[in-house]
Amino acid sequence: MMLTVHIPWMLVLLALALLPFFWQKARAISFSSLAAIPRDRTSTALTYFVRAVAALTIASLVLGMAGLSRPERDVWRTGSGAQCILLFDESDSMNELFAGSAGTGKMESKMTVTRRLALEYINSRSHDVLGVAAFGSSAVFVLPFTERKEAIEAAIKVQTASMFGTSIDDGLFMALSFFENEPMVGSRCIIFFSDGGGAIRDQFRDKIKELFERYRVKLYWIFIRQPEERGPFVPNPSDSKTFSVAGIIYQSLAGLGVELKAYDAEKPNALKDALADIDKLEKQPIPYRERVPRQDYSGLCYSLALILTLILIALKLMEVRQWRNREG
């Protein structure tokens, strides 16, 4: 385990920990004859023990003041499930009413429903490895791959529909970048929460397709529509060749040649069913790399110094101040 200190020059003070071993002054005890004093191996051992405790006390204080810590590092962990990216559409259209709210008396925006059901999804997969990204007019990196549920929940709860424009290609590029330099083990997917606005620009189609194939990523699109909006699979009644806006996006995604499953979430239960399908499809053991933050051990050093000081005080109180002859 590699350790570092915040103030390296203070390590020079560790030399002070040697002082107890050179301190020879001892309490003088009057006795009638040196020859009559019994040899006490226990006291000799206790003397060296006291000196060792004193040395450790000094060393602990110095390391605490120097800021002993374990530096930030990458560690490999193993999860069971899929290596998935939750990709959220943060365009302002996600503030509109969700279709499943109609007739229920409970008016919810598409983003509110998305957050709530995404939280239910991660709670059903306790060992999944997830990352979080978002997009609107541009892509936003939110959370790297992790198995820590509290971090994933926090990343989902901060999602808001506050961006103008919908750049789907930027969002897909961001989501795909998570898989770069990751081991090719287990299943991978992008869960794409969107109401179907925006488009994939022609100049990026080939590159996006290449990345999907290189990283072997599946795409699940959770389509969250508003009332009276047609889904991605429904053609325009007046023209069987003309699809809705969502349908155009679906055709665009399908045209990439990637593994795509789309779900028309007409109501909250339908969205739950879609997430349940994904839950069944993606369950494999996978290794993943996680960034562990710096760990500060200064408090531990000070606590150890306090405990050792209390031991020294207790030993001091046990010290013999006067030798009494048992026969006298």
Number of strands: 13
- CA radius of gyration is 33 Å
The helix-and-strand class reads: alpha/beta
CATH architecture title of the largest domain:
3-Layer(aba) Sandwich
Broad shape:
elongated
Counted by DSSP, the helix tally is 9
Counting structural domains, the number is 2
Percent in strands: 15-25%
| Regions with little confidence, pLDDT below 50 for 5+ residues | 234-245
CATH superfamily of the largest domain: von Willebrand factor, type A domain
- Indicate the CATH topology of the largest domain: Rossmann fold
Mean pLDDT over all positions: 77
CATH class of the largest domain: Alpha Beta
Helix content: 25-40%
Strand order of the largest sheet: 6-5-4-7-8-11
For the largest beta-sheet, the strand count, sense and barrel status come to: 6 strands, mixed
The rounded distance between the terminal residues' Cα atoms is 59 Å
Listing every helix as H and every strand as E from the N terminus to the C terminus, the arrangement reads EHHEEEHEEHHEHEEEHEHEEH
List the helices and strands and how they pair.
Layout: E1 4-5, H1 19-22, H2 41-66, E2 68-70, E3 73-81, E4 83-89, H3 110-123, E5 129-135, E6 139-146, H4 149-157, H5 168-177, E7 188-194, H6 202-215, E8 217-224, E9 235-236, E10 239-243, H7 245-254, E11 260-265, H8 268-281, E12 284-292, E13 295-296, H9 298-317
Parallel strand pairs: 4-5, 4-7, 7-8, 8-11
Antiparallel strand pairs: 1-2, 2-13, 3-12, 5-6, 9-10
Helix pairs in contact: 2-9, 3-4, 3-8, 5-6
